[in-house]
Amino acid sequence: MNLPTNTFSKWVNQIMLLPALLLITFSAAHGDDETKLGNTTVKDIVIYRSQAMVTRTVEFNHKAGETIYIIEGLSSKLIANSIEVRGKGDYVILSVSTQLNYLEPTPKSRQQIQLEDSLEMFKKDQDQLANRKAAYNDEVALLQANKNIGGANVGIKTEELIKMADLFRTRLFDLKEKITDINNKEKKLNERVKQINNQLKEIKKVDQPTSRIFVTTIAKGAGRGQFEINYLVNNAGWEPLYNLRSAGTTSKITLEMRAQVYQQTGEKWDKINLKLSTGQPSLGAIKPVLNPWYISFSRPMPRVHTLKSMEITTSGKKRENDEMMQDASAYQLSTAESSGSYTVATDQTLQTEFEVKLPYSIPSDGNKYTIDLQTNDLPASYTYSAVPKLDKDAFLTAAITGWEDMNLVAGKMSIFFEGSFVGESFIDPASVLDTLNVSLGRDKRIVIKRTLLREKSGNQFLGGNRVVDRKYEIVIKNTRKEKIELVLEDQIPVSRVKEIEIKDTDLNGGELNADTGIVTWKLNINPGDTEKKTLGFAVKYPKDKIIIGL
User: Fold this and answer.
1) Dist CA 420 CA 315 (whole Å)
2) Which pLDDT does position 155 carry in this prediction?
3) Which of 13, 74, 228, 473 could pair with 211 in a Cys bridge, judged by C-beta atoms 3.0 to 4.6 Å apart?
């Protein structure tokens, strides 16, 4: 493309008034002047919850005129609409497009190469075993073909016959043993080869294509240039995972936030700068719009009794009925550091980013790789809770504050108390207020017993009503070496009809929630002490009625 110098300069000046990036839909007609660029360098990667943004750079020499640069070997999971190409140099980017390349599939992963190497080695072992077994079988056949010793009319001494028989038997037995040993080895080897082949099928179910990007530029003269390519890919993401640790009821809570990162994009992410973002581009960025909410009287559907009556219905009515039916169906060693010591959390307007200040490699195998993000020591107050009507054990709970600054994301949490794994829970910051309450498990050193002391019913009448009177005793013994705070809960019935009257006859200092019927005691029990609480209530209802739930 040859333009007069003044025309070219004027045209370039107009183009440069536009943004440096021009994205145009793919054009099937590429020019003949195409240049394939070498391997691009992965600059950094931002991994979202279910996608990832890849940034690559590549340097090149450009010449005068129009040139199409081809960047190859990219993920087939690349999202075309997300591609951005920025340039440095004395040239103008005219267009950017992409296409799948089936002629150059995704490079083999490290795991695939290792498995194929192992498979080749095992196949060599199989060949060696097969050759050895064939030689032994040939020798067995040779021995069996020469069983007759001497000719038919030639005599042989008894001593020689015995020696020959012993030699024949010993050698044949030895050969049979060797063949049996080879058969056993072949069986194990074949099983191993089968396992490797199955694993290879999982890794490469089909040869995945790669993506390539075409960047068309125009330049007045030759020079040095650089592209920075950004694009989103699917088949990548991360999941939050937490460890909550407590050394005892007098210590702070240690909350560790980790990420399980995965990718199966077909790309090699080796020693990359990694950022994890709480954002989710896949959810879209468009604000929903409310449409008018219309209401009207319902139209009864025509009742169709037989196929014949359907046939005499007008076509319009039949179509309307069909549409309505379709709608209805719809040791003393220093402590090793973790990556959390090198992670910085940054609050942005719409999301939080965790930048890992260490180079990371994430293979394209779909496996989850755990990365430590942050660890904080948080204030906590410890309280025991018990509901002996449902469970005789006391449960230790921790009320944790100060967690808001950790930028937590909803996810699974493993709980450790006094060095032991207690169980799993789930943390959802969206449903937690100022205090995060976590159950740390059962404590068998607090012994609780709930006993029914009294139950009077049947012949106990008051006017035209029947009365049921019950009383329970709850005994709590603290066998720990320190004082405990215990929140004890029980309940009395709650009536839903006015004919049934509930009266609390003995709450023993407990606080009653009239709406739920739950009675709560807040107790402080010294080491070795025993606390007793009683709970009584009476239910009055018409004697000709039967009540349920009592």
Assistant:
1) 72
2) 56
3) 74
